[in-house]
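User: Structure please.
Assistant: Input sequence and predicted structure:
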Amino acid sequence: MGKNNIQKAYNTTRKANAIISEAGGVMFKTSIQTAKEIIKLYQDTGVKAFSLGRGMVQKTVQLTLNNHKELVRTSSDALKEVAQSLQEREQEQEVTIDDVLTD
């Protein structure tokens, strides 16, 4: 009977090893699949973040350009007003020879 018990222990160990090996394979495959899904998730998130960032930069540049155009237009209008005001003052202050002789 000693041999019979050793044979049973051997067979049980072989079956246990086969079960553990199969479970390990399943766990390994599951881990690989999970890692692939996590990588895909990070990749998708990265693409979305890049797209959002690019859109934000484009809008920021457009707002800055619009602001710059408005500043240039406003400055130009202000300079034109100053020039017109100076011309009007020069015309008001023009002194003719008659004005000098009569004073």
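The chain has a mean pLDDT of 88.
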